[in-house]
């Protein structure tokens, strides 16, 4: 699938490539911008939500503190009330009327305290004689004083809050959930214990402190104790339920602030604040989508506007790309005319950009080509250089034809991986051969060209051919002629190894010997007979086809090219034992890539 898309893309015109590429790039950028903007703005909104919710939880905490402080103050008022002190502190009487009056006086005192304090649901007083006094309108009061008399036995002033629980009394025939304060009280005159006071606050009053706080349509604020049991909640069905199995509970116990958690298939913002007085944790939860819903609408509009921009950009890109590619089409048609042999053409492009510069250089190239073709080269060296260039050009097509045939063969065998590898190696080979257009390159570049050539042949011949290179790195920066080693290696393969039974092997070495650059190519092929070896460099032998058939064509051309560029004292030396192999030694001057002789 990927290859088909790649092939389709490469088959498109430049105009369509520019349009498609720009459309895809702009679409991706707009989507990325929308995603990044959404994430940044969502982060800001969540941060603001954490800050606002934390402020609300702080307000709840402060309200609770005032309520419970007042409750303790009113408890002290009740136990220090003179009437209560006198009635409870008086000796037990057997007179029922006296006892009734005492009960009535105590109840009135308690009622007066409760009636003026809306947050106090009830006041209950237990004396040491199992008498119970209440603030009125209470029924079925269950005596729980024994528990706290035991707890406060060794304490002068015992005070304890009881977490949310079901009331031990009925009020208006209904039970309720309350938070109770139990306080031991003593005689203000003698200090002896007189009894126990219970002040209860309706849980609904606690919940009302945060019921009107808006943290989102689906957001909730509630209070849990250290065991994860809900102590107060506006949703009464949640009271006494446990949240200890939720992931956020351990975090809420030990941290204050906000964090996002996954619950019931969606993300929630959880904000917590501790309330040490009761070991409570005040928690606010709100779905993330409620916090970011306005941001989502903005993002959708942004993407819609971005789509319109993409459409407008595509239209503009089509118009612009047509104006850019129109001169390229003119160049294409002109090149086709030149390819067909018409050298009288000329590009008339008025633009001064890169395409205009290309057209100008093309016109120069065509003019120079025409001039070179019409001029007669007078000097013999120039004529011989041209002939050698023609000879050199014969090497590359021969190799290319063979490689293309190999590619066809590999394709027929469905060896796609080898086809890809050999095509890549062929491209790398010709990049090395054609790069920079100079006939003089460094030894390092020549080694790369030769190694690429050998790798292509290894794909063709498999394990039937191996090679090794032993090149001293110091020689890499010296100059040599392009395609120096390749014709020699080719000669070794086609005229040495090809006719050999078994595996063939080539060694390529490079050293500096007595201020000369010495390269050598050795093979274990069939070698060259002595009588044919003597004719390879025979200057009287002009029969090139004969030398070509004996394997000397490429060697002779290479030797003449070396002498042409570097002088007669340099060139090739061939040693061969027929049936055992051949070694070609190349002698070159030590000229570095800056052109300086060493």
TrEMBL record:
Top-rank EC class of the record's enzyme: transferase
InterPro entries named in the record: Bact_2-comp_sensor_kinase, dCache_1, HAMP_dom, HATPase_C_sf, HATPase_dom, His_kinase_dom, Sig_transdc_His_kin-like_C, Sig_transdc_His_kin_internal
Catalyzed reactions: ATP + protein L-histidine = ADP + protein N-phospho-L-histidine
Transmembrane segments: 20-38, 302-320
Naturally occurring in which organism (per UniProt): Cohnella herbarum
One MF term in the entry's GO annotations: phosphorelay sensor kinase activity
Keyword field: ATP-binding, Cell membrane, Kinase, Membrane, Nucleotide-binding, Phosphoprotein, Transferase, Transmembrane, Transmembrane helix, Two-component regulatory system
PROSITE patterns assigned: HAMP, HIS_KIN
Record protein name field: histidine kinase
Entries under Pfam families matching the protein: dCache_1, HAMP, HATPase_c, His_kinase
E.C. number(s) listed in UniProt: 2.7.13.3
Compartments, record wording: Cell membrane
Primary localization: membrane
